[in-house]
């Protein structure tokens, strides 16, 4: 993947928010991302499919749940970009509500 392709993926707020949450929590399922972002399941699934097809995230089935996590095959520069985004406190403050909604989620599946 070329840099402009990664940045194009990250230019969508829903994909960025999904990626930040996945980076923070290591693995999340669609239902957790749906609750955290307050978006519909089809919308979240569509954005996760784009991230998966691009190789940024991978999925893993655990029983009835499919968990998404950062791909172990990211290029070093890709991992660094995502790491820098994840560590940017001022950026994360803008999405603090996502983390709060995830924390407050009832009946959260166990990873």
From TrEMBL:
PROSITE patterns assigned to the protein according to its UniProt record, in alphabetical order: HTH_ARSR_2
Cross-referenced PANTHER family: ARSENICAL RESISTANCE OPERON REPRESSOR (PTHR33154:SF18), TRANSCRIPTIONAL REGULATOR, ARSR FAMILY (PTHR33154)
HTH arsR-type domain boundaries: 1-89
Matching Pfam families: HTH_5 (PF01022)
Keywords: Arsenical resistance, DNA-binding, Transcription, Transcription regulation
Keyword DNA-binding included in the entry's annotation: yes
Protein name: Metalloregulator ArsR/SmtB family transcription factor
């Amino acid at each position: 993947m070329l840099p402009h392709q990664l940045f194009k993926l990250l230019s969508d707020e829903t994909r960025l928010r999904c990626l930040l949450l996945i980076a923070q929590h290591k693995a999340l399922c669609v239902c957790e991302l749906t609750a955290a972002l307050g978006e519909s399941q089809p919308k979240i699934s569509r954005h996760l499919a784009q991230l998966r097809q691009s190789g940024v995230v991978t999925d893993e089935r655990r029983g009835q749940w499919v968990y998404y996590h950062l791909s172990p095959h990211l290029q070093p520069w890709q991992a660094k970009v995502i790491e820098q985004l994840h560590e940017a406190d001022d950026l994360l403050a803008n999405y603090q509500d996502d983390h709060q909604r995830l924390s407050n989620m009832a009946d959260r599946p166990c990873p």
